[in-house]
Amino acid sequence: MIETKTEQIISVSNVTKRFGAHIALDNVSLEIPKGKIFGLLGPNGAGKTTLIRMLTGITAPDEGTIEFHLKHSSSSIGYLPEERGLYRKMKVWEQAIYLTRLKGLSDSEARHHLQVWFSKMNMNDWKNKPVESLSKGMQQRLQFVITVASNPDILILDEPFSGFDPINAEQLKNEILKLHSEGKTIILSTHNMSSVEELCSIVGLINKGQVILNDSLVEIKNKFRKSIFEIVFDGSQVAFANSIGFQFEILNIKNDNGFLIATIKSHDKVSPNQLLAALLQTVSIKSFREVLPSMNDIFIDLVGQQTEKITE
Amino acid sequence: MRNILLIIRREYLSRVRKRSFIIMSLLGPIIMACVGIASVYLSIDEAEDQRVLVVDENYPLFATIESSELIQYVISDADLDEALATFETSEYTALLHINKNYYKTHSGQLYFKKQPSFRVQRAIERTIQLKGEEFKLSEFNISESDYRRIKQPFEMQAFQYDSVSKTAEEADMLPAVVGIVFSILIYMFIFMYSVQVMRGVIEEKTSRIVEVMISTVKPFHLMLGKIVGIAAVGLTQFMIWITLSFTLLGIGQYALLSQYDSASVFENATMTDQMQKDMSEEMQDKTIKYSSEDNILASISKVNFPLMIGLFLFYFLGGYLLYSAMMAAVGSAVDNDTDTQQFIVPITFPLILGYIASFILFSNPNSPIGFWLSIIPFTSPIVMLVRIPFNNVEIWELALSMSLLVIAFIGMVWLAAKVYRTGILMYGKKPTLREMIKWIKY
């Protein structure tokens, strides 16, 4: 589906997973390119967690294969689950060392890497506190640090922003972008569509155990564009309506500080140039842009359609 | 393997450092030592001097009773009611009334201010009895030495005959007591520590750390690391208890010995044994000297401690592994402590059965139920140690019991790992036993 020459880091081929009679994943195939931020999307119960658990090796597929194109072993995956926790009675630093060492790092390596992250995230004061004394946001930060401290090649972050205040969420977003620039492959599973648009370059959408969309964000937006334009102009509404003719339908028009903002939809494939040429003769154009669908709209469209089909 | 060791280390250290562990480790032996010291101390306390006023209705039959170091007798021909009236304010600790017509009644009553020990009471009885005999001997013109020679008690010792080695081993109660103490300890340790495994699994599940853990380590390693780590905690606690108890007992005895004459303390400390002998042989004889301390030392030397401790460690670990594997499976299946009840009851049933059976076997070591319960792996860790000191366990029985236990715990750990693997990722509903069995097949 993806027509790029980028190297793949994970290849999921025809994977099926059943729990009793329930099919959680049905013949799923996905390619996850190296060094990209991959958005794994889907409604609740779509099978995202099942797929992530198979990527992390927690469960195995019933059919199909998952291939890692890695130099090292699978221990170079950092996983931040959606339902995440820590040993409540353990001290922060002790726990961070323990979990990092389980990733295969030596004691001194673990200390070194963690110290870098603790300083970066301003967590040095917490080291000797028991985890249970930290606030939820602090625990989330600690969990993130533990996930990335072992320096894994692949990061799987399941709803990483939940529980964060806007400031911390922004810091986390910046850290994710930094990790991306360092060449890490990041799989981001979230319901927060604006963060998908900000961070991800490739998206895979799962619904009812099947991949219903897998493409780059740009391609997806292109594919789902509906030829809707937004024009800000100065002039008469009637003249505007006359000049766009029957090929366009006015969806909305409103007055904003003396200017008029019109949203129109093309019925045919009229090029923006033709439209502009017609408009320029009657009204004064202040701005003109094509309205691309948001991931939110696409998500609702696709998942909604499938749900309707079922209910029919 | 590296990760299992890391897990064992965490499980061990996080528990050993807990305040509750330290308190339990210290309090256990202190309580044990206190009980030990108190019993020694109480026996010393009982040894205080007695001044007994003897109101003899047969006066002057007993007028020549000799006082002993411990008990001083004052003979009187006073009226009982009169003597009793002044007894309260008198210097006497006890008042002995000997009934009229001694040679028909052979009875009397002892009134006391503070209850004298059983031993003191026996000593008084014996003094009166011997004095009574003395008069009769002279009446029938029998010399005392002749009489003593005639009146020899029949001594019977019980032996366990071993047809293979053609040797006989004296049966004794003390090794059996050691056996049942070890068996109770195993029961306690299995119970305490297998429940800790369950709690640990539930804690990991409810705190949701488990998903991070099993993305890094195999669930089987996580479970095994926890079980082994907690076993190490149990063994540590056992060692601390044993070492501290003996140290405290030693200190306690030393402190007491420095206050009292050492010989009398020892005699008092071993009095229980003496009392049994006194009771069983009413016609106690002065010339037969029972040295109870010899008996106890002999009995202790008959306990095969290396074998008992070796078997204790084997059966504790075997039983613990068997039960903690089941507990780990239960812990993985539920979301909280309250849901565990329905599973714990059937699991601990054989454990409790074994506990009850060990008391039955203690009094009736050849009960046929003992054979089966000491072979079946669910009860053998508790029951076998009670049977061993009676020397009625054949080598093949022990071998069968031990190998069945090993097979059982390996099988149970394997089964539990399968339930655990699925269970730790299941949230929300409480599973039924049938569902848990289905998980084994996943």
Order of helices and strands of chain A: EEEHEEHHHEHEHEEHEHEEHEH
> Overall pLDDT of chain A, averaged?
86
Unreliably modeled segments of chain B: 261-297
**Major β-sheet annotation of chain B:** 4 strands, mixed
**Looking at the structure, what is the overall shape of chain A?**
elongated
Q: Identify the strand order in the major beta sheet of chain B.
A: 2-1-3-4
Please provide a written account of the structure:
The complex is a heterodimer of chains A (312) and B (442). Chain A is α/β, with parallel strands linked by helices. In chain A, 36% of the residues lie in helices and 30% in strands. Chain A has 10 helices and 13 strands. Chain B is α/β, with parallel strands linked by helices and 442 residues long. Chain B folds into 2 domains: 2-39 and 173-441, no CATH class; 50-150, D-Maltodextrin-Binding Protein, domain 2. A 4-stranded mixed β-sheet of chain B has the order 2-1-3-4, sandwiched between helices. Chain B has a two-stranded antiparallel ribbon with strand order 5-6. The longest helix of chain B is centred in the middle third of the chain and has 41 residues, at 219-259. The model of chain B is unreliable at 261-297 (pLDDT under 50). Chains A and B meet through strand 5 and helix 2 of A and helix 1, helix 7 and helix 8 of B.
